[in-house]
Amino acid sequence: MRHALVFLTLALAAACSSDDGGAGDAVGGAGGVVGGSGGSGGSGTGGSGAAPAGGAAGAGGAAGASGAAGAAGAAGSDAGSSDASPDAPPPVCKCVKGEGPYCAARAAAEAKQKGCVIPALEGHAGDLLKCENDKWSVLEDCKGTCKYTASSAKLDDHCELPICDCFVQVAWCGSGAAKEAAKKGCQIPLLPEHDGDILYCPGGKWSVKQDCALGCVEAPTGTPDSCKSTSSYKLPFDCNSTRSCTNGNHTNTHTGKDEYAYDFGMPIGTSVRAMRSGTVLRTRYPSPPGSACYNTIGSSSCANYANTVEVKHSDGTVGLYMHLSAISVKVGQAVNQGDPLGKSGNSGWSFGPHLHVQVQQNCGIWWCQSIPFKFAEDSTISAGTAVKSQNCP
Ligand SMILES: [Zn+2]
């Protein structure tokens, strides 16, 4: 598994690396001070793909021991017993390069090389797969358009659906247009970057009709969508405290999937507050205090080891809170805006203590394409801006 994660690391590098480049130095001194308290919140659900590798093998072994050949075949997961009888079915593949995403063809190539099988490939030869905790499943129905060539080492596989014919008469919020596109099995080239803007398609060409500083509202059918006049998001730290944005949208390493992220410099152990209400979708706690990626300075091998909380909002978007030292919420828990989620830290690929937040699509794994969002306190926050939280009870 270790070597597999290195590949994922490479893929993540593009987005997360500098991510945090600007954050480190200014606030670095606070580093270890509060680190000890990090343990209290260790309620994470365990890592992404690395930790539970033993689970599947154990199950397979049990089935085999009972002597029920059929059951063993069905379980199919006795990857551990390499010296099984010659007519034993090939083992089910573990995650080869972390969570993915994988075009089915990439997964099939890996499986062939390793002499194992991936049941989720059945009937999904051109779709997008993921692998979580060594379980394979379909991430997205690509209608057969997921393309993979052996030369693409990066795990940035995606569907290549045809461009949608124009279906907008007046004005559609990008996020609403995306839903319609999914229904039609096509894609709109401006998305997800313009999920929060108003789209139209004069002359059949998809275009942005209006940039919405605070995102857009999907109106009921028959009414044109419009820009939002107030933001649903408030700053992710204590009411009345002031922090500096050390890295804004499209600056430093906030590119690619991270392009609409914000970094705020703060010492390890600072309270992290929900920017918007929602439900805890996922927590990851691969780096408890004392582990290699708990408090590092720019170590790329830690890219998949950031402690994170994800909160799913009512519109289906997800708030990602990254580099934490402690987590104080559980999956499925409802949180209100301003509720504590955990403590900030310096875990994963980070260059110094800070909090990285982004609002992203719910793509089925922990790190997805970010989408634009603004804070109610100040819609113009960028690197170097000091901002005071009004995320008050
Ligand atoms: Zn960042």
How would you sum up this structure in a few lines?
The protein has helices at residues 2-16, 23-27, 54-65, 69-75, 104-114, 174-184; strands at 102-103, 128-132, 135-140, 172-173, 198-200, 207-210, 216-217, 226-227, 242-247, 262-265, 271-273, 278-284, 308-312, 318-322, 326-327, 334-335, 340-343, 354-360, 370-371, 386-388.
Describe this structure in words.
By secondary structure, this protein is an alpha+beta fold. The protein has three domains: 190 residues, Glucose Permease (Domain IIA) (Distorted Sandwich), CATH 2.70.70; 90 residues, no CATH class; 56 residues, no CATH class. Helix content is 16%, strand content 19%. The chain is built from six helices and 20 strands. Strands 9, 10, 12, 13, 14, 16, 18, 19 and 20 form a nine-stranded antiparallel sheet that branches. The protein has a three-stranded antiparallel sheet with strand order 1-2-3. A hairpin with a 5-residue loop joins β13 and β14. The longest helix has 15 residues. The radius of gyration is 22 Å and the shape is globular. Bound molecules: zinc ion. The site of zinc ion (ZN) has 7 residues, from loops. The site of zinc ion has 7 residues, from loops.
Bound molecule types: zinc ion
Tell me the β content.
15-25%
Mean pLDDT over all positions = 80
Rounded to an integer in angstroms, the radius of gyration calculated over CA atoms is 22 Å
Helix content: 10-25%
CATH topology of the largest domain: Glucose Permease (Domain IIA)
- The H-level CATH homologous superfamily of the largest domain, spelled out, is Glucose Permease (Domain IIA)
